[in-house]
Design brief:
Layout: H1 2-23, H2 28-31, H3 34-55, H4 75-94, H5 111-130, H6 134-137, E1 140-144, E2 150-154, H7 155-179
């Protein structure tokens, strides 16, 4: 996780440094929260695609595991994995105890349970993204890593990491859907 958080933090820093140059000639208010506005939009778009991916795929696809390797997650396990990590990173960004801690949503058995877990995790994350400003996102907070050590990161780095993780696994789900000739939500007509 440390490498991922550092990568996300680097992205925040680079993007933030580019904001003043990009904003030249524009009213100050138009770029005041450019990063948080972009992040909120990207999060919402991917969230909607993931919820549709959970809701609109038949139950029998949830057990699909490409190939025979047991270490490759099933479609359903990916949905559960996304719920686990949305809770983790949003609780860290909120500086709260993880409400999903001690639960492993990857072990849920049905489409209904997994879809609800994913929706609940997104409902938990929504206020973090909805109220985010660039200034609040750049606030440095303390986060406990998997090894128990504390690290200091900008709040927004956790949310960018969460978005990146959601994107990564949406790509996995797209592959599973395409294997079964299902058109993914992001490719469906608008």
């Amino acid at each position: 996780m440390r490498r991922s958080v550092l990568l996300a933090a680097s992205f925040v820093c680079l993007f933030t440094m580019a904001l003043p140059a990009r904003g030249q000639g524009e009213p100050a208010s138009s770029s005041k929260n450019a990063l948080s506005t972009w992040l909120r939009s990207a999060y919402t778009s991917r969230k909607n695609d993931l919820i549709k991916s959970a809701e609109n795929v038949p139950e029998e696809i949830y057990g699909l595991r490409p190939g025979s390797q047991r270490e490759v997650r099933t479609y359903g396990q990916i949905i559960g994995h996304l719920a686990n990590f949305n809770y983790l990173w949003c609780s860290q960004a909120r500086q709260e105890k993880n409400p999903g801690q001690g639960k492993d949503f990857e072990k849920l058995a049905t489409r209904a349970e997994l879809t609800q877990a994913l929706k609940d995790a997104f409902n938990y994350c929504d206020p973090v993204y909805a109220t985010l400003t660039d200034a609040a996102g750049l606030t440095v907070i303390s986060v406990t890593q998997e090894n128990g050590k504390q690290t200091q990161v900008p709040r927004m780095s956790l949310l960018i990491l969460n978005l990146t993780h959601n994107n990564e696994h949406y790509g996995n789900l797209v592959t599973y859907m395409r294997i079964k000739s299902i058109v993914p939500p992001s490719s469906q007509p608008r």
